[in-house]
């Protein structure tokens, strides 16, 4: 037989005397050079090629041809990926793959050398058939879990972790939540004392790499494959020696990880099937959490719509009844002053409608925040408010990221509230409104009559008001805009006894 003989496992050429021996081997043996040309096929490999192509060719005809031309169906498969990786790393590897033209599963072993690659292929007819059946059974089991409408999300995740532990042979399986530098166990299957709700430093875990890279991390033997991770508590203190974890993505951000691990290293790497299985589970968890997020948003929107309907029907009815009364009187008497009162009621209804629409829009997340000068925004807002003689004192030099239009609306509502509710019997003349800086935020206060202690907890609720003619939407709108920006709001008292509203977590 012509062509270069394959290299052995230690990288040396196979002695010529093994030529006939390889032909008697019931596994397919191929030899490729560095350019992927066939250098050798034994009798079994030759038969496999003929069966796959449906052509009768001699072994000599195959030598010198590119394997990707001989068997083009191998392109873009696990076989090609592993072969190219073995040639690049010069490391032997074993894997299982399915070859579609033969509808057969093969256990493949690759032995690379500087001059080429030797490929041993064992057809696992019975084992492969059983493997496919097992995989189909696992997928059906997974489907039954995720399709169970009576199970809670936590129960479904627990069942997926149970399946993963069984297939991977690991003792631990967890769904985690990552917030900043903290890692919280949410659903746990563990033989130890780890419980849901436990929190550790993210930097102590292998999951940190998953979170940072947003990619699945596969480590059959952590010490051998990622020695830089052995300094972490996960290995040094907890003894985690093998790990397979995938990121959970919710609303385009990393929510946490879905992972499996054990204190014993694996003797063989995780298979493609095992990695794919964990990826599938992680993606379902991501979708389920995304769905829960959307459903919660819908519940909030429905509650907001119901709240709006109640407020609109209640708050519009009074000025509408007033307008009807004055309109009837105008018809009877022709009194122009009655029509002025009708116009005033209509203006009141327009204000209520504007407030309700503003409140409806305020709950939306800030999609395109920009860097802005809060002092400049506050000054612009003051120019848009009928201040009725009140004075603004500004001591705010702070930048923030947000929606300038909605933040101007926030300041306008604060100023209107101060003028309308902080003034005494003589109106707003003499009232001073101050805007100043806080650590991590700012405040808006006045020296007016203030907000009673009993009302401070509810004053930010939409629809709550202490005035007979108020809608209670102004400060509710302020709270919603602040929440949309991730800020915290607190109602307190200024030094002079007036109202003071503080905003923190401003960045």
Automatic annotation (TrEMBL):
GO terms for molecular function: phosphorelay sensor kinase activity. Residues 311-504 form the Histidine kinase domain. Keywords: Kinase, Transferase, Two-component regulatory system. PROSITE patterns: HIS_KIN. It catalyses: ATP + protein L-histidine = ADP + protein N-phospho-L-histidine. Its EC number is 2.7.13.3. It comes from the Archaea. Gene3D superfamilies: 1.10.287.130, 3.30.450.40, Histidine kinase-like ATPase, C-terminal domain, PAS domain. This is histidine kinase. The lineage of its organism: Archaea, Methanobacteriati, Methanobacteriota, Stenosarchaea group, Halobacteria.
């Amino acid at each position: 037989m012509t062509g270069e003989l394959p290299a052995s496992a230690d990288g040396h050429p196979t002695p010529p005397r093994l030529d006939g021996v390889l032909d008697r081997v019931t596994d397919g043996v191929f030899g490729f050079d560095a350019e992927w040309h066939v250098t050798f096929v034994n009798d079994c490999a030759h038969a496999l090629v003929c069966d796959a192509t449906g052509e009768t060719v001699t072994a000599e005809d195959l030598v010198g041809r590119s394997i990707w031309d001989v068997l083009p169906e191998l392109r873009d498969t696990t076989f090609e990926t592993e072969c190219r990786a073995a040639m690049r790393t010069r490391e032997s590897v074993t894997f299982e793959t399915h070859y579609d033209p033969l509808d057969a599963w093969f256990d493949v072993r690759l032995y690379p050398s500087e001059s080429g690659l030797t490929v041993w292929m064992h057809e696992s007819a019975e084992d492969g058939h059983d493997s496919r059946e097992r995989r189909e059974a696992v997928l059906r089991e997974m489907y039954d879990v995720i399709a169970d409408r009576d199970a809670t999300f936590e129960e479904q995740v627990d069942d997926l972790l149970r399946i993963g532990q069984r297939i991977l042979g690991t003792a631990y399986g967890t769904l985690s939540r990552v917030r900043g530098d903290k890692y919280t166990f949410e659903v746990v299957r563990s033989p130890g004392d780890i419980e849901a709700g436990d929190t550790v430093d993210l930097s102590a875990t292998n999951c940190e790499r998953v979170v940072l890279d947003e990619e699945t991390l596969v480590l059959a033997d952590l010490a051998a494959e990622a020695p830089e991770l052995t300094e972490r508590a996960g290995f040094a203190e907890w003894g985690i020696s093998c790990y397979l974890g995938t990121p959970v993505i919710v609303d385009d951000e990393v929510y946490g990880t879905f992972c499996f691990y054990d204190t014993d290293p694996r003797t063989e790497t995780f298979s493609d099937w095992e990695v794919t299985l964990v990826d599938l589970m992680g993606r379902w968890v991501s979708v389920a959490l995304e769905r829960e997020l959307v459903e919660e948003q819908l519940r909030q929107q429905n509650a907001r719509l119901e709240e709006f309907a109640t407020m609109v029907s209640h708050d519009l009815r009074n000025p509408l009844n007033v307008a009807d009364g004055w309109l009837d009187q105008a018809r009877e008497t022709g009194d122009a002053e009655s029509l002025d009162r009708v116009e005033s009621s209509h203006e009141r209804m327009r204000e209520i409608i504007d407030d309700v629409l503003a409140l409806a829009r305020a709950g939306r997340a800030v999609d395109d925040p920009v860097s802005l000068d809060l002092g400049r925004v506050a000054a612009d807002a003051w120019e848009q408010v009928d201040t009725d003689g009140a004075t603004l004192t500004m001591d705010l030099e702070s930048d923030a990221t947000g929606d300038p239009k909605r933040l101007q609306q926030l300041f306008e509502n604060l100023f209107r509230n101060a003028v309308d509710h902080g003034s005494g019997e003589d109106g707003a003349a003499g009232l001073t409104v101050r805007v100043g800086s806080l650590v991590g935020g700012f405040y808006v206060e006045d020296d007016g009559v203030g907000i009673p202690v009993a009302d401070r907890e509810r004053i930010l609720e939409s629809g709550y008001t202490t005035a007979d003619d108020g809608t209670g939407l102004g400060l509710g709108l302020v709270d919603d805009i602040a929440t949309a920006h991730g800020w915290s709001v607190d109602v307190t008292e200024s030094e002079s006894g007036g109202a003071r509203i503080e905003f923190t977590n401003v960045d």
